[in-house]
Amino acid sequence: MTGKPRGERHIGLLNGFAAYGMWGLVPLFWPLLKPAGAVEILAHRMVWSLVFVGAALLVLRRWAWAGELLRQPRRLGLVSVAATVITVNWGLYIWAVNSGHVVEASLGYFINPLVTIAMGVILLKERLRPVQWAAVGTGFAAVVVLTVGYGRPPWISLALAFSFATYGLVKKKVNLGGVESLSAETAIQFLPALAYLVWLTAQGGSTFTAEGTGHAALLASAGIVTALPLVCFGAAAIRVPLSTIGLLQYLTPVFQFLLGVFYFHEAMPPERWAGFALVWLALALLTWDALRTARRTARALTDEVTVPGTTGPAGTTSGDREAESAAPRRGPVDARP
Asked: What is the pLDDT of residue 330?
């Protein structure tokens, strides 16, 4: 990755900022779709996302993966699980934003890395370094403080974090590209979403044709709002280091939090500030630990080039094995709200 030309890296960074910036500013978009309810908006998002990514695949002529996926029932089943989980995530996020819970929704994406780590320990039996344990413990303390501050558990944040972490776990096993994955998931979502929209229209509850051409166009553009950041993310992921992507991802909840506080004027009493401060401390610990590990890995690889290490059974050197164990695993392609 470091061998990429400087111009390529700059293009990657611009695309990364664009992707996470669009995801961070999306709370400004969902209120524009009122008076449509969250479920109607979600259904239109599913339908029009498939139209948009289908057109993109048609232009790119990338269809070979679809036949291969259909011949693998287990993998197709995992895609169905991913589609179900991201449906819950998308629907809850749209409802949260349009119901005045932007700050609490942003918290879900702040604590998502902590939930992902916890799931790795519980489900995949992964071992954590001491700093990672400290970050998870700090995150748990933050949830306790926020529970006191809200007078209830921050269930919107927790549901968003756990649903997206589950989505990431499933996507890791599916291993499809960004546009291909979104196409497969929205193809599964398409018929139920379309059936709901037809039923809603028959019941006289649809706003698609009742609120004018502008409203219909906004609902249709939900597909572009879903797919365009993903395209930018894909362009960034192949041009900049994973560590940079990991840092850029925090732009999304930061923008959402700032919008919730300063644009939507949501309340932030001292207890909530304390809870968010603990979350940010936990993320700072994770980031510091990741950067420190990356530096150690780079140093080990440099030393290995200078002084060749002991060759392992598969022909790998000791530096190779250290790098493999220390390097962060590449997460799923984002499908942010």
From this structure: 40
